[in-house]
Every structure is written in structure tokens, then in C-alpha cells.
Here is the input.
Amino acid sequence: MPSPEPQTHLNKVEGPLVETRGLSHWRDGRCVMQIGDWQLQPRAHALLLGPSGSGKTTFINIVTGLLTPSQGAIFVAGEPMSILPPAGRDGLRRRTTGLVFQTLRLIPALSVTANLALAQQLALGQVDRAAIAAMIDRVGLSHRAAARPRQLSQGEGQRAAIARALITRPHLVVADEPTSALDDANAARMIDLMFEVADATGATLLVATHDGRIAHRFGNRLNLEAPQ
Ligand SMILES: Nc1ncnc2c1ncn2[C@@H]1O[C@H](COP(=O)(O)OP(=O)(O)OP(=O)(O)O)[C@@H](O)[C@H]1O
Ligand SMILES: [Mg+2]
Here is the structure.
């Protein structure tokens, strides 16, 4: 990695990085996600598994403070994400977490480079152009660095979204099906990159996937049940 020192705002997380207590989520009178008590310890990279509709994206939205759980509580880096006010959640997410959305959510008006620069500015308060260029090179998009998201293929967009999540050197990298649109070579390359960045920065991975090409890389699994 270009920068030798982790540039995160929280230097060390004591205790679990993510902790849930009695966590479940209900929609329209139906339980759509049931986890209960669970802990993600630092460096215990975890796979989030479960059939379609079992609540993986719901859980990721709760971990990242984008959704309030209907029952129970969730703590991220020891802070009570689920009861913080919206500004507090945004701040906690920016300080701790890099997120790869299932639907990518790159900012359409910005180039790949500018998407990464904005993420860095928001999380770290500064932009490191050399680190951004190096990260874009790592995901194989140097020739598309000036492109807008809509000009990218699905797999290129996924690689850009992964680069954006990693560029802030977060404590927690949360990714929702990050390799679903990638060919075998790029899927292997992206998972290698995620593990390598995690090793270099002390980050912990939480990855939802059905992708058997990457699932075997994780020792820690959280299985969600099929919806009732
Ligand atoms: N806005 C919504 N309103 C009502 N129900 C919803 C809403 N969003 C999701 N659901 C339901 O909640 C359940 C969990 O959805 P979720 O997106 O978390 O599943 P998932 O495990 O991520 O599935 P996939 O593997 O298909 O991405 C599903 O039954 C889904 O239909
Ligand atoms: Mg999903």
C-alpha cells in the first residue's frame, strides 16, 4: 500500500468491532432478519450467508446505521449505532466503515477518481492523490479513472466501489455481494485485495456473498435463516 501508516480516526478498537444484542428486524408484521446475539471480533473476517431474502442486506444496512432495527441493539467499535441520532450514525460510519453496496451507489456525477477523493475527504478530512491513483491501479481501472459510473461496465463499477470502500483504510469493511458481476480472475483479484488491505491496515471484513469462489477464504460465518 502506498501509505505505511493506517490513517483511521480510531486507532484501536477495544472489544468486539460489531456486537448485536437480541437483534431482529420486522417489516409488515413479518420477521425479515433474525440474528440475536453475535460478535465480530477484530480480524475475525466473517462471511454473511443466507438465501435470497434472508436479511443480509437488511443486516448490512443496520450495521452501517442506514436502518434502525425494530428489536435489539447493535454496537460498532463499542458505540451504540442503533440509538445514535442520524448525524452521530453518519459520523461513526465514516470513522469506522468502508461499505460496498449491493447496488454500488457510486456518485453518478463524479469520475472514479473523484468518487474515491470524496470518500477520503469525508472520512479522513484530506485527499491523498497518490494513494487514490495506486488504489485505482490495484483494481485494474487506471484506464477508466476519469470515467463516470454510468460509463462503466457492471464489473468495473463493482471494482470501483471496492476501491472506494478501501481507500479510507477503515476498521470495518462491509461488502454486499462484492464479486457477483466479476469474472473468475477479477473475483480472485478483488478478494485478494480486500484481504491484503485488511492485513496491512488491521481492518476486519464482513462480506455477504453466495459466491463459492470466495466463500472458502473466510473462517468465520454468520448464517441467516430463510424467511418464514
Ligand atoms: N423496503 C422494504 N419493504 C418491505 N420489505 C422489504 C423491503 N426491503 C426488503 N424487504 C424484505 O425483507 C427481506 C430481507 O431482504 P434483504 O434485502 O435483506 O435480503 P437479502 O438476504 O439481502 O437477499 P438477496 O440475497 O436477494 O440480496 C425480504 O423478504 C425482502 O422482500
Ligand atoms: Mg441483498
Summary: The longest strand covers residues 30-40. The helical segments are 56-63, 86-96, 112-124, 129-138, 154-166, 184-201, 212-215.
